[in-house]
Amino acid sequence: MDFGLALDFGTNRATLDKVLDEYVPLLKLAEEHGFHSVVAGQSFPGRGGSFHVASPFLVLAALAPRTSLRLGTGVTLQPAWHPLNLAYDGAILDQLSGGRFFMGISVANPGDWDRFGMPRETIGRRFDELLQAMKALWSGADGYEGELVKVKQAIHPLPIQPGGPPILVGGLSPRAARRAAAYADGYYAATQYRLGAVGDQVGRYKTALREAGKSADRPEVAINRLCCVAETDEQAVNEGRPYVTKVLRAYASRGALAGETADHLQLLERTMGDVCLVGSPDTVRRQMEAYAQAGVTRFELRVAPGDMPAEMVARTIRLVGEHVIPSIQ
User: Fold this and answer.
1) What is the pLDDT of residues 301-322, one digit of tens each?
2) Which domains does the chain have, with CATH numbers?
């Protein structure tokens, strides 16, 4: 089991340069406590608030010389990218990071498709071909010829990692599971996915791997989880509530958190374990064991949601590193 950080870089309280300066000591703390990676999400915000940035590759490039952690996207959104741009930028980021880059990617949502002018009837096929094109280009192929995606000539420079950075595909549909098995190196579960749905999707992913003639013994399965850890359950819930709930409400308000509404007064309690990891180290360890049983092999912990104070973020990293990681591994 690997553990990483999924950091929220978008905020109104400071510019990105200041946010990165604030996060560097937290990344150093994570390095000291056995964490594996740091990931940045992608979104296309139209107004202020806490948010993922539209350019996660730029953020990761800025972090590359400031941390030894692996650098990933959790996740990149397909509509923003032409396959050629994505292949080039992924290769450059892999070189800048010394071969530490990995990419989570998903098909995004209908609002993003419309905003980028992508026809809905071809979005799935285009995504399949984008993944195949990137793999081909990163492996040194002289272009790619698909039905919807056509890339002439090779790219240069190639990534440091042979064949390119690992790709983890997100989504909850059966097609997403087949896509991850056919064209990627792993599966990536999003923040708002409930544990039961993740377990079902991992089962579909393993079935698709076996049908493709690939090993399904312990495939790579990463998941983003909101996380706040304190010495006691009561302290974690009481202190983490305003920050974790802020993110939960954002998902619920757009119908992305199954079965929940944004105005529910006990949104945190209703999603603990199932969507977010909140409590003492022992409680969070027990919650994580259920994810391991479901097939998760890596946690990317959203330890800084909703402008959570740095001292609380550091506490979560320290307690997870000292008490959870050793026991889980």
Assistant:
1) 999 999 999 999 999 999 999 9
2) 2-228+279-328 (3.20.20.30)
